[in-house]
Design a protein that fits this description.
Order of helices and strands: EHEHEHEHHEHEHHHHEEH
Radius of gyration: 18 Å
CATH topology: Rossmann fold
CATH architecture: 3-Layer(aba) Sandwich
CATH superfamily: NAD(P)-binding Rossmann-like Domain
């Protein structure tokens, strides 16, 4: 696909009878993604930390799409017990899952530890999604054209893995640890692709990023300087709408020609905005040793091991 061939939500194939889980579906990119999938007939499970906000999102969508097929389920990605509970309840109610969109995230909070003692951004943005994907892999394997879409960021290119100080105890910088979590997303998505491919699985692992999109990640960040720079200055001047920023992950989730292992982002200048197209991961995200080390660490920290099918 080239930048001249502008892809829009009107090109999403019919998604009737397909089941999606979208994390962080009540606002921003997640809400735009949910709305577009529901419009094309998909059944979308809104995985949200605040169920009331999830119900408000459903009301907003159904006001314009009365026949939208939606359900709200609570998921706190920063709490691994919540992740396990969500997966168990979903498995009890749904025999298959077609697409998991790992979209939710937090950005640049003060140093905070999760319930299990992990740095909050690493816990929510990476570990929670790692565990969720592993716990739902059997449902995805039973799906039709199954995919895992993990949403990273252009910021992954500024990230580095602090394996010796993952909690920020020796020196915490909010955006530095945000960039680390987005690099972890990128490494995970690619490593998942490699392991799925080696096992012969039909599940595709695709990465996406939204460019520079105006969401509550920027306006909601509690760090004063970053809130001013991103929310009050950057967004009005440079950011695109959530509906546009969601196009890469919608493309990754629904376009028939997308291949496992690809990274989809905006095709405009510096990948800040524009139509979805294939973009490149930073070299550090494709480093084999980094992928192995992060995977093994994530298994240990979450207690989740992926049950890949035996290679044919």
């Amino acid at each position: 696909m080239t930048q001249q061939q502008r892809w829009t939500t009107e090109q999403i194939p019919d998604q009737t009878k397909r089941v999606f889980v979208v994390t962080g579906a009540n606002s921003g990119l997640g809400l735009a993604t949910t709305r577009a999938l529901a419009r094309r007939g998909g059944h979308v499970i809104l995985a949200v930390r605040d169920e009331e906000k999830g119900r408000q999102a459903v009301a907003e969508i159904t006001a314009g799409q009365p026949d939208a097929s939606l359900e709200v389920r609570r998921l706190d990605l920063a709490d691994l017990e919540s992740v396990r509970g969500f997966a168990d309840r979903l498995r009890a109610d749904h025999p298959h899952l077609d697409v998991l969109i790992n979209n939710a995230g937090v950005m640049a909070p003060p140093r905070t530890l999760s319930r299990q003692g992990h740095e909050l951004q690493f816990a929510c943005n990476h570990l929670g999604h790692f565990a969720l994907t592993g716990l739902l892999l059997d449902l995805l394997t039973a799906g039709t054209d199954p995919r895992v879409v993990t949403v990273s960021s252009i910021n992954h290119r500024q990230g580095r893995m602090r394996f010796d100080d993952l909690t920020g105890e020796r020196g915490y910088k909010p955006m530095g640890y945000y960039n680390q979590s987005k690099l972890a997303n990128a490494v995970f998505g690619r490593e998942l692709h490699l392991r799925l491919s080696r096992s012969g699985s039909l599940v595709r692992s695709v990465l996406a990023h939204p460019g520079y999109t105006a969401t509550n990640l920027q306006t909601g960040t509690p760090i004063g300087l970053w809130r001013v720079l991103l929310g009050r200055i950057g967004n009005p001047l440079f950011a695109q709408r959530p509906a546009d920023g969601a196009l890469p992950q919608l493309y990754a989730a629904t376009e028939p020609g997308v291949e496992s292992g690809q990274f989809i982002g905006p095709g405009g200048m510096a990948e800040l905005r524009g139509a979805p197209t294939r973009v490149q991961l930073a070299p550090v995200a494709t480093d084999a040793e980094t992928g192995r080390r992060l995977w093994e660490l994530s298994e240990r920290l979450t207690g989740v091991r992926f049950a890949f099918p035996a290679a044919v």
